[in-house]
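User: Fold this; tokens only.

Assistant: Input:
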Amino acid sequence: MALLSILALLLAGCLASPGRAADARIGPDALKPMLQSDSLVFNGFTRSKDGRLFSPFQRQTKGEGIELGEWRDGKPVAFPDAAWNAWKQGDDPAKAFVAVNAIRIGPEGDLWVVDKGARGMGEAPLPGGAKLVQIDLATNAVRRVYPLQAATTDRSFIDDFRFNGRNVYLTDAGQPGLLVLDLDTGGLRRVLDGHRSTIAQRPLTGQGRVLRDDKGKLLFIHADQLEVSPDGKTFYYQACTGPLYSIETRFLDDAAVSDAERARHVRLFAPTVATGGTAIDAAGTIYASDTDGLRILKIAPDGTTSTLIEDPRLVWVDAMWIDEQGGLWIPAAQMNRTPTMNGGETSAVKFPTTIYRLQIDAQPLRN
């Protein structure tokens, strides 16, 4: 009873978070459905400068469906090819997608993909399975694979990533911590390993409900969302349930800095709530979803938080993307309704799943 009371208080605090009033200029008609699927669940989106559209997909049945797809004529097609999407038990996990979790177009225009390399939620990554894959969009072929095994453990769940020059920062949502990858050397380091800012302090929630994995255990998603400031000097990150922290990137980039010293420079940036995904614009405004309140928050560079839009269709908005025309692409992923977050129960996803677009007149930031 005591635990339930505590969880109820936490949820009440989240739903009463600051910035509740939505932007009066934005009505429900401004949220435009752009892409839909009658059978597939996606948890992200990215768009190339020439208008090509991509999403990672979450298989609801092992061995069926695709992990990464390009939207062509309104339907997703396995990308870069069928072979990369056809991994099965016994295949080499270093040469195919085991479980794609995040994608984005990189600063040079290639498509980059994080594969957590584990067959299911809470399972250990397979040897060679955790990787960052770079795909040349001119040839639709894999350009390079960066193995992540050297900085992962059997608890790791490599979640998302951002660029900062020739460094890539990645979050580990299973073994709480951050990874720093040098793209030139392939060198990989763990930083802020086990630091309080990388650890989820409460169970994951969605639509006001505490979530459990497919084995019935409470879900704790550690270091997850992340962004880099427009000038590349500040790194923002949080566990899936918030709050949002910041640290100067120089303390991440310098391998000579000890983790104890690094921890001294972590700052609380904004009191975010349970979040599915984020995006950042060229002015440094962060857009973060609220998985309980079904809304998108705007977090100004000074940490001030307001509501951009609130809409019942925005169920578990995951990784968002800002296009060159100032549109925010919003995948309503409904992840909280899938068996992996719904205690193993039959999927409650309401099809079609939808990716929306909202004109926000912001310039994109590519990192």
